[in-house]
Amino acid sequence: MNKLFTWILAFSLLLSACGTGTAGNETAPTPYPTPVQETFTVQRGDIVIDAKLSGRVSPLALFTVYFEMNGQVGESFVNVNDVVTEGQLLGELVEAREIKAKAQEMQNVIRRVQIDLEIAQLTLEQYKTQGRSQAEIQIQELQVELAQMALDETLLGLGIDPEAYEPDDVDSQVAMARAYSPADGTIIAAVSAGRKLNSSTAAYVLGNPDKLEVVVQLDESKGDDEVREMFEGMPVIVTLDAAPGKPLSGKIRQLPSPYGTGDSADRTVHILLDAAPSASTYQNGDKVTAVIQLASKSDVLWLPPDAIRSAGGRTFVIINSDSGPKRVDVELGLQTRDMVEIVSGLDEGQVVVGP
Length: 355
Description:
The chain has helices at residues 2-24, 95-130, 134-157, 170-174; strands spanning 39-41, 43-65, 71-76, 83-84, 89-93, 178-180, 185-190, 196-197, 204-217, 235-240, 243-254, 268-273, 287-303, 309-311, 314-321, 324-329, 331-335, 340-344, 351-353. The protein is an alpha+beta fold.
């Protein structure tokens, strides 16, 4: 019994010792790493703002043709690359048929009262040559006056000034719903049947296939932000998508109104290149990229956009000072996706703390 008790006591002491040793060897918990704030250094350099636009080499545009009224294109009689002559009918609006019918109806109404007036006038002349009595002649003069009054009332009822009325044929009224070629040329742009347009929308463009220009599309997502910084005659660098290592110089020929002489609804920029077209430079149909420098400044202070903060109507950055983080107001200048000009508030080499 004494032996059993001795063994139990020894085993208990052993367990106790093991437990104590484990507790004594426990390591301290690993602390969370302190986050490192990103910093930015105020640098000096050049900032350039470019517009990068895609387009194609096309025949030089000479004339733009419009319909004289709003409507829907019923028929387009020409296609791109068709050669046309001056005065040729290019297209007709759906409304032309309705205008023609109404014009014919209006002319018939006017013509009826005109005939009444002419009959009265001829009868009066006949009475005079026949030596009719003075009473018969006076009665017929009154008939002429009544016929003239009926014609004037008819014209006024149709919204026509009797004093300014000049008889027009039906075709001249229908012409408002038709588009004609203003000169000989080649169609380089044409509307298709079914399209709705207004009188300020270009329906057809005539060009010279022997001369080429570059036509690039404005970036719709930027509205007028880019085009308002452009002007006709502005230098441009154009590269063919198939030969990006061979830049070509040129100038803007035409911008959309109100920024240039083009159509306000035409969201394109027309560019004339300095080099002549050839197999080694550019040819009709080549896809291109045009780079137009909108603004540039040299030797300015700048920071990346991530360093700039805005709150409560203030634009500022955070710098570390002896007393802790400090807010410093800054004035900004040119801005690109990667660089923001610092006009005032900071010096070159200062370190700014990121958000």
